[in-house]
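Propose amino acids for all 203 sites.
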C-alpha cells in the first residue's frame, strides 16, 4: 500500500489535528520521499516510517510537537538538516539501518537542542574508530546513543516515553499524588478532632 492511502486509513474518522501517533511502516514511497503528510498534523508526537524505501526526509512538513521519529531500515545517507528546521522539539530519533557512513552527516543534529536519544544500529558510521566518543562530543545534548549513555549504562524504562507518559508527566503525577495524600491526612485529622469527646468541666 502506498503512503498516502495508509495515512487515509490511519485517519479513519479523525481530522489531522486529532492524530498524536502515526505509523506508516512498510508502505511504498514514490521517489523515496515522504508523501501525504502535511502541516495539518500539528499535534503529532510520534511518527514511524520504518522500511519504506526513503532516500530523503526533505519532504517532511513542519511538526512542532513531534517528539519521536522512527526512520530505521531506509536508505537515508544525509540531508538531516531539515530535521532541526521542521522538528524543533524532537527528543528521540532512530536512524538504524540507513546509509550513514561518517560523523559529518550527523552534524545537523547539533541544532536539535531537545534530542536525548539517537539510534544508529547497523549504519556504517558505527564501525568508525571512537564512534561513540565522537558522537557524544558532537552532540553534547544526547543522553543515550544506541540505548546506552556515555558510561555504558543502559536506558531504563523510566527514561523512555511510554504511551505518551514521560518523565515530566510522572513528576506532575507524583506531585499531585503527594498533595492528595496530604489533603487526606489533614481531613482525617480534622475528623478525629470533631469526634473526640468533650473534656468535662470539673469546676
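Proposal:
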Amino acid at each position: 500500500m502506498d503512503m498516502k492511502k495508509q495515512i487515509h486509513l490511519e485517519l479513519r474518522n479523525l481530522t489531522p489535528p486529532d492524530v498524536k501517533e502515526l505509523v506508516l511502516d512498510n508502505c511504498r514511497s514514490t521517489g523515496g520521499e515522504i508523501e501525504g503528510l502535511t502541516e495539518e498534523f500539528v499535534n503529532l508526537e510520534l511518527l514511524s516510517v520504518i522500511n519504506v524505501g526513503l532516500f530523503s526526509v526533505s519532504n517532511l512538513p513542519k511538526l512542532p510537537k513531534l517528539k519521536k521519529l522512527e526512520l530505521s531500515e531506509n536508505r537515508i545517507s544525509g540531508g538531516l538538516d531539515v530535521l532541526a528546521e521542521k522538528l524543533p522539539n524532537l527528543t528521540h530519533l532512530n536512524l538504524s539501518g540507513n546509509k550513514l557512513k561518517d560523523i559529518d552527516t550527523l552534524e545537523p543534529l547539533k541544532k536539535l537542542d531537545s534530542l536525548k536519544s539517537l539510534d544508529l544500529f547497523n549504519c556504517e558510521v558505527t564501525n568508525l574508530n571512537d564512534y561513540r566518543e565522537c558522537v557524544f562530543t558532537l552532540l553534547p545534548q544526547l543522553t543515550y546513543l544506541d540505548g546506552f549513555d556515555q558510561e555504558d549504562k543502559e536506558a531504563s524504562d523510566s527514561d523512555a516515553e511510554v504511551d505518551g507518559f514521560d518523565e515530566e508527566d510522572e513528576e506532575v503525577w507524583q506531585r499531585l499524588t503527594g498533595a492528595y495524600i496530604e489533603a487526606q491526612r489533614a481531613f482525617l485529622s480534622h475528623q478525629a478532632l470533631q469526634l473526640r469527646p468533650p473534656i468535662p468541666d470539673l469546676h
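The CA atoms of residues 194 and 200 lie 16 Å apart. The helical segments are 3-11, 81-86, 131-138, 167-195.
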